[in-house]
Write a structure and sequence with these properties.
single chain, mainly alpha, 2 domains, two-stranded antiparallel ribbon, 9 helices, elongated
Length: 302
């Protein structure tokens, strides 16, 4: 008997230090929401492809826009809450400005529009490739057989064609039929998106609160394994609060999570205020009087 695979990857390590368990729980909750939204959207793509096979022409479905709005809303709501929690770990009085939600939501909507476009193209490209291969068989499969294979080959492994009393777990699905995967596994995709988004907003909140509390330097804290992206090489690097970190490949980032996708996907690095010893060290390099600079940062005067 095929052993069922664990549905979700571990969310341990989403962040370290204070607030870690809450961040891990929030990441998993967000991943579940993302998985549900993508499930509904992929189901609409499957149905659309089946209608095409049967020669049924319908007007464009609003499913794409619904998926974009639902993803942006779920990510923005979780993100703003995590951003505020992260900020309060540095400054208990930190609050996210009301105008930030709309700005953040618009950013997430643009990102999710790109995601939905990518998964739609991925689905259609692979579905039609497999359909072309199936239709070249001798004897050619019937329309009913093509639609059956399509349903069993999409990302949920045939969950939509199970009987109502069957739970869509891999332990049940695997023995039914193994078809080619039309899309990447939805669980890993949802997990990756959720973990990446939560770490991004954690660092955005930390960065905002460090600035608001008058910190003049920030420090990059790298996870043990960064996937060969060079994040370990700038571990404990300290730079002025308004200057970017420079990664080994030349990429500049104001904080972990704010940069190109190759440096943000599944990144678990985070920023903190630079220790006082490092602040004094950096001030000496720049010929800055530490006490005077601290007073100016805190009170806006010499």
């Amino acid at each position: 008997m095929t052993k069922a695979r664990t549905k979700w990857q571990s969310f341990r390590g989403t962040r370290s230090g204070p607030g870690a368990r809450k961040a891990e729980a929030r990441s998993k909750a967000l991943a579940i929401k993302i998985r549900q939204i993508l499930s509904v959207y992929y189901k609409s793509l499957v149905d659309e492809e089946i209608r095409r096979i049967k020669g049924v022409v319908r007007k464009a479905s609003p499913a794409e826009q619904r998926a974009i709005e639902a993803l942006a809303t779920a990510i923005a709501n979780s993100g703003i809450r995590e951003m505020e929690d992260a900020g309060k770990r540095n400054d208990s009085s930190f609050k996210v400005e009301p105008s930030l939600y709309r700005q953040y939501f618009n950013e997430k909507r643009a990102e999710q529009a790109a995601l939905i476009q990518n998964v739609t193209e991925e689905f259609r490209r692979n579905a039609r490739k497999f359909l072309g291969e199936w239709m070249s068989e001798v004897p050619a499969p019937t329309v009913s057989e093509l639609t059956r294979r399509l349903r069993f080959s999409y990302f949920a492994d045939g969950a939509e064609v199970l009987a109502p009393n069957q739970k869509p777990t891999r332990g049940i699905l695997e023995p039914l039929e193994r078809g080619p995967r039309i899309t990447r596994d939805v669980y890993s995709r949802a997990t990756l998106i959720a973990r990446t988004e939560i770490v991004q907003v954690q660092n955005a909140g930390s960065f905002s609160s460090l600035k608001a509390s008058g910190e003049r330097y920030k420090m990059w804290n790298a996870n043990i394994d960064d996937g060969g992206r060079g994040h370990q090489e700038i571990r404990n690097d300290v730079v002025p609060i308004d200057e970017p970190f420079i990664l080994p490949d030349g990429t500049s980032m104001m904080h972990p999570g704010k940069g190109p996708i190759k440096h943000t996907a599944n990144c678990r690095c985070f920023i903190t205020a630079a220790p006082r010893s490092r602040v004094r060290e950096e001030d000496r390099k720049r010929g800055i009087d530490t006490a005077q600079a601290d007073a100016q940062a805190m009170f806006g005067r010499d």
